[in-house]
Structure formats: C-alpha cells, structure tokens
Amino acid sequence: MASIVGRQQGGATWSYLVDGTLLGQQIECGNISQWLCWWNGGGEPDSTVIGANETGAPVSYLTITMPAGYLNLDPESLQVTLQWTAPAAGTYRVKGNFLGVDTNEASHPVAIVHNTTTLYSNTISSFNQKENFKLTVPVEANDTIGFVVSSNGWTYLSTGLQATIQLQSTPAP
User: Which residue has the higher pLDDT, 44 or 110?
Assistant: First the structure.
C-alpha cells in the first residue's frame, strides 16, 4: 500500500491531491479507528476524501466496503490523485490494482500518469471490479507518477487502490 501523505519512503514522497491541490489535514473517517482520511473540506458535490484502511480488516461505511490495506479514492465531482515523487532517476516497477469498493459503483475513469503522460487508463464500473496494472517506467529525479480517479457524476465513485513502486535499475554513470 502507498504511504500516508507527505511521508518519505525510501527517499520518495507520497502526496494526496484534489484537482491538483495538496490535501494536508488528516481526519478520522466515520468515527472508525485506524481508517485515516484526508478531506478537501468541500460540501456536496465537491466533498472529496482519500482514506487509508489500516484496521487489518475490511471496513464498511455507508455504501462502501473497503478491504484492509487499500486506499479509498473518492473524487465526488472532482479529480483525486495519489502522487509519488521519484527520489532519483532510474527504472521503476509500478504494480497494483484499482478496485470498485462502492456497492452501487458508478462507471468512472482511472489512470496512471507519468508527469503529464498517461501510461495506463481503464474504467471502474462495478462493485468488486479489480483492474490490475504492472508497468515499467523510466523516470528522472523529481518526476511524478500519479494514480488518478476521475468523476463521471458525483455519487458512488469510491475506488480502492493498492500500489507499490520499486526501483529496478539506475542509469549508468
């Protein structure tokens, strides 16, 4: 699973963004211990949340069933992104999946973007629909890889994400 916002992991930084704006304040989701959330503070339909289920068990809240070890990216009417910033140049393996976690899941796009170039795109349109990805991406230091969930409306769009990024090789000196 990806790290919590702004946390350094192996020199890389993970960030949570809504329409390009960094989310910072962590809150507790639905009064559920160990379900950590970041919220943009907006009202409906612009109330966007990213949540991390660190409970060790599935969590159900409203129409969402979030498996353990997943992030929940819920864009409402906006776009939400988990963004990784490369600590160094190299070739990285990007592996994981997007998962429909809303029992009333509405169809919406998901993507993986390297800086501004789309590397992967798909559509999540049903509960428990899992779309795996495995990419090899050459990057420069400070390049970004974004896991993007976009809106096609504003309800029933919660999408689970599991992602790992591992260095495979470094450029020759």
Answer: 110
- How far apart, in whole angstroms, are the C-alpha atoms of residue 3 and residue 25? 15
- The shares of helix, strand and coil residues in the chain, as percent rounded to the nearest 5, are 0, 55, 45
Q: Which two tokens stand for residue 154?
A: 């504003």
* Buried/exposed 7-28: b ≥16 CB within 10 Å, e otherwise: eeeeebbbbbbbeeeebeebee
Per the prediction, the chain carries an average pLDDT of 83
Contact call for residues 170 and 89 (beta carbons, < 8 A) = yes
**CA-based torsion, 167, 169, 172, 173: positive or negative:** positive
Residue % of the chain over a pLDDT of 90:
42
Reduce the DSSP state of residue 168 to 3 states and report it.
strand
* Domains detected in the chain: 8-169 (2.60.120.680)
Query: Which of 8-17, 24-33, 72-81, 145-154 has the lowest average pLDDT?
Result: 24-33
Average pLDDT over residues 2-25: 64
